[in-house]
Amino acid sequence: MKTGITMAVALAAAGWAVVPPAQAQVSYKDMADALHAVMESDRTVYTRMVVNRLQNEEKVIKATEHFKDDKSLPLPAQMFRFGSEMVAEKKMGFSYSLLSLWPVNKQNAPKTAVEKKGLEAVAKDGAKPFYGEETLGKSKYFTAVYADKAVAPACVTCHNDHKDSPRKDFKIGQTMGGVVIRIPMK
Q1: Which residue of 3, 30, 69, 174 is 20 to 30 Å from 133, comparing CA positions?
Q2: Where are the domains of the chain?
Q3: How far is it, in rounded angstroms, from Cα 89 to Cα 1?
Q4: Which residues, listed in sequence order, are joined to residue 148 by a DSSP beta bridge?
């Protein structure tokens, strides 16, 4: 019991509210920010530690669009989409995607006004996420858009050299698109 009281006092002193689990709530923004932190970390690690290292540094294997036929690695964008599709199959109550104002694959262009506004906002200021609400069908959603930046030479080379890329001047650190997270509102 003493440990529980000590922990509660420490959490309260740190500014954390101790709330019974049945009453705990997380805002849509905080949930989207937490989901994005995981997604961005996983995406960056795969890009830097797997694709860039094996393809660009060690030249062991390439990452290609047709990875099955080529017996190569999936592109980082494909890995991201595979994760998104798996989450959708689990019916977790939220969705995410990787979109761009300059998509290599045309189906990754913004489809809603909020997506377009969000992508424009993060292209202008990649340090600041965009948050909005939208109604799709009969459901209302909290939609968050986060800058997706070129984190390794593999990102820049792939996009700048791709025959279908509408933009050929990306540099490391620049916003290339955005991660769109959509959470249903109750």
Answers
A1: 174
A2: 25-184
A3: 42
A4: 177
pLDDT digits (tens, 9 = 90+) for 2-24: 444 444 444 455 555 555 566 67
Sign of the alpha-carbon dihedral angle for 124, 130, 134, 136: positive
Written in H, E and C, the secondary structure of 97-163 is: EEECCCCCCHHHCCCCHHHHHHHHHHHHCCCCCEEEEEEECCEEEEEEEEEEECCCHHHHHHHHHCC
- Residue ranges of E strands in 10-124: 95-99
pLDDT (tens digit, 9 = 90+) per residue, 59-104? 999 998 899 999 999 999 999 999 999 999 999 889 999 999 999 9
Q: What is the rounded average pLDDT of the residues 127-152?
A: 96
> Coil, strand, or helix at residue 180?
strand
CA distance 32 to 183: 8
Q: Which fold has domain 25-184?
A: Beta-Lactamase (3.30.450)
Interacting residues of 175 by C-beta distance below 8 A, sequence separation 6+ = 122, 123, 126, 147, 148, 149
| Residue 106 burial (C-beta neighbours within 10 Å; 0-12, 13-18, 19+) | exposed
Q: How far apart are CA 180 and CA 185, in angstroms?
A: 16
